[in-house]
Amino acid sequence: xxxxxxxxxxxxxxxxxxxxxAEQNINAQTFGPLIHNKKEIDRLKRNFYVDSxxxxxxxxxxxxxxxxxxxxAKGDFQTLKDKNSEIIDATCPFVTKPQKICEEMSGCGYDIxxxxxxxxxxxxxxxxxxxxxxxxxxxxxxxxxxxVGDRVALVSQTTRRVEKFLEVANLxxxxxxxxxxxxxxxxxxxxxxxxxxxxxxSCDIVIIIGGKNSSNTKQLLKIAKNYCHSCYLIEDENExxxxxxxxxxxxxxxxxxxxxxxIIDSVVGKIKDY
Amino acid sequence: xxxxxxxxxxxxxxxxxxxxxAEQNINAQTFGPLIHNKKEIDRLKRNFYVDSxxxxxxxxxxxxxxxxxxxxAKGDFQTLKDKNSEIIDATCPFVTKPQKICEEMSGCGYDIxxxxxxxxxxxxxxxxxxxxxxxxxxxxxxxxxxxVGDRVALVSQTTRRVEKFLEVANLxxxxxxxxxxxxxxxxxxxxxxxxxxxxxxSCDIVIIIGGKNSSNTKQLLKIAKNYCHSCYLIEDENExxxxxxxxxxxxxxxxxxxxxxxIIDSVVGKIKDY
Lengths: 274, 274
Hints:
The structure is a homodimer. Chain A is of the alpha/beta class and about 270 residues long. Chain A contains ten helices and twelve strands. Chain A has helices at about 15-25, 40-50, 75-80, 95-105, 120-130, 140-145, 160-175, 190-200, 215-225, 260-274, and strands spanning about 1-5, 30, 50-55, 65, 85-90, 110-115, 135, 150-155, 180, 205-210, 230-235, 250-255. The longest helix of chain A has 15 residues, at about 95-105. Chains A and B meet through helix 7 and strand 9 of A and helix 7 and strand 9 of B.
């Protein structure tokens, strides 16, 4: 059985970086989950004694504190500084960017519009850096009845689609004299989707590895099914069934943005043994 | 015969302002034609002794110099200042705005993109204010093979369509980290078009007044014809034919952006007499 990995799959740059930081800081704590993947959080605790602490009051000021990939609110950052603990910032640089933009632009008097999900930790963090109340919208429809000034700065949550971002930008440009548009979208998720689309066309079976409830993983499965008849979604190698691979020659592999490399490696190893 | 004027027609704010300036400065000179309308230029010469001088070398430094509505190049402005003549700036404020933006943004290191016609005096003037070579494009297609930096400022010629401007903005936003979009479009031309569309629906004859070669005038005629069967384009009242108005009750009037009010008044007066 030949196994081919999608050109892009699994963790993005920011998540890989955060995990590397955690592995280098044995016995540290993270404020909130470092990334959105429980198996990986458990591994970091088991192998590197890195704890995840949800309540800021419960953080131990004698241990290093790692800031998670999605970032935290500016006020919480100050509270951590006041504890005099050693702080290690694992905020993804793609998330730090809109935080800084909001801080600077609101300080220059621009109205701030954030295109994203107000309930997501990343967006909550970005919002907290604005010196005036930001306008947070999930789509252009929500913008229509909002009052926006004549000078506006626009940023996006990193995981949003550029087409929808442009709809928001366009309405703002029609209405305001100056719109400073900062394209803060990270293409990692969409790169994974593009890669599985290309891969599935040349395979007779495709295995997608990731959480069954993960929306980006299910999206990968859906795309693969458009191009290949035999597609399966598994959380780890234990769910593989040998019979799937009968009469198959080329197996493609992709993985959700929350799937660690070591799970991918185990799956690939087992399939190669068939 | 009832005669109704379109809610918006003829000269825009900037042209009206420039003519008023010329009328108040008897014996002045304009560097190039003040506006794009020969009959009006002739009237200013006849009644107010305002000359139009095409060559900067031929301007008389003992007479006031009026800067035309579309603006002039920054270097020419300096040459005029060096003559120590009295300069009266009749540049439309909607044109001064993109000039200032280009100067400031290029000074701050932004690449400059101008959406407009490189052969138009307005665009030539705006270009001259950029401290680095600006990119001038007539549509998004022309932008596709242009190399643009990561920080871009975008302005528009005042008479361009916002939909086409957004196409340019969108491609820039996809490619660059920061795009400062300045909506410098003036809606005067489109307001005239919207107004004739509304007017033609309630009239049984529509008269459009303007140059037979004027593209914005022909556009008004085309729109009117969609809503009314009897539409005529005339340059002045001498072209009116009484037979057009037989059995008609309501006559709508519109005029191109280069049609002076006194021509409109003459036409209206003659039709009312029928």
